Amino acid sequence: MSETILHGYWRSSAAYRVRIALNLKGIAFAQVAHDLRAGEQRDPAYLAIAPHGLVPALKHEGRILIESPAILEWIEAKWPSPPLLPASVDEAATVRAIAALIGCDIHPLNNLRVLTRLRSQFDANNAQVKAWIAHWIGEGFGALEELVARHGGTYVFGDSVTLADCYLVPQVYNAERYNVDLGAYPRVRAAAAAAGALPAFAAAHPDLQPDFA
What is the mean pLDDT of the chain? Predict the structure, then answer.
């Protein structure tokens, strides 16, 4: 088995972005699946790896890393080529800000445990849950569209793939999965399409993962 093991779930946005980064760096990795729908992330054996009971977790040479932002920064530092952050500290800060907008301001409000809570504790029906998802994606994508207009090229930031693309492509996948209308965000859609067509992104797609179901 590979010395690098990714604990994840095929439809997890956070695991998806880590798969993309590992692929971009050319790092071989094995996968261990934890079905979030079945609550496998709360199994004691997994909690011994990731006490917060979330995916992904990355094991490399005996070291366990959790939380995708930390994992992605570690991947970038561990394997700096090809770079996923610009050399300029100012430009790198902009890329990190775009990534944080997606990873901190959009994704957490629409992840499985939040949606489950809306249904179980607040009796939200499917239409209300979809409206919730669309609202928060719309809020975030409106800002993203402006940021891509300012900084984008072929991809989210200029003409080279960055960490921002690793975050964006999974979030667009989520939006499309819930039939969110993205017509108002042509720059975001174009950047996601350009990155998504690259082999490293395509291979990370949820439908191609071993636990896809």
Answer: 97
